[in-house]
Design a protein that fits this description.
It is a single chain. By secondary structure, the protein is mainly α. It has helices at 2-5, 8-25, 45-60, 81-90, 93-99, 104-114, 144-160; strands spanning 34-35, 41-42, 118-119, 122-123, 126-127, 131-132. It has seven helices and six strands. β4 and β5 (126-127) form a beta hairpin.
Length: 161
């Protein structure tokens, strides 16, 4: 077997095996084509790049639709959607932080973090230009789960009163 590896044929086999094993470890994130809003397949890196940017800019800057939710079962009466939406509009993150006793300097620091928030999208076609994000919590921030829980806690308190 070792003598076969010394030949040209053996070296070609080793190279082929190494190439196949390397390809098997690759992730499929290098697919360089996507569909646009009309379903047309884009293969130009600049167009792919712009499509990703437009998609995430729209996704990260719109409020999710608030459809009818499922009511709670058991001892608690189902909460009507209109009541919930009124309560939700009254609850704001900054007001919620203050009502839970968060010091004003931390409220202001969080406001600074959320003011003029910008992000980029990285894909196989490259990284987009930065764009503004004005809705929701910051993705990947260690603070976001705390802020979400705080807001939900205040909302639940208001709804259950």
């Amino acid at each position: 077997m070792y003598e076969e590896l010394e030949t040209k044929e053996g070296q070609k086999k080793i190279y082929k095996i190494a190439k196949e094993r390397n390809r098997a470890t690759k992730d499929l994130t290098l697919v360089k084509q996507i569909k646009d809003k009309n379903g047309k397949i884009l293969t130009d890196p600049d167009k792919i790049w712009m499509q990703w940017k437009e998609y995430y800019e729209e996704l990260l800057n719109q409020e999710n639709p608030r459809g009818t939710g499922v009511g709670m079962e058991g001892e608690v009466d189902p909460i009507r959607e209109a009541e919930l939406m009124i309560e939700f509009r009254e609850v704001r993150l900054w007001r919620s932080m203050r009502s839970k006793g968060v010091k004003e300097k931390y409220v202001r620091m969080t406001q600074d973090m959320y003011r003029d928030a910008r992000t980029r999208v990285r894909s196989a076609a490259g990284t987009t230009e930065a764009f503004s994000v004005s809705a929701g919590f910051h993705q990947g921030s260690a603070l976001s789960p705390y802020l979400f829980n705080l807001l939900i806690d205040v909302l639940v308190e208001k709804v259950t009163k």
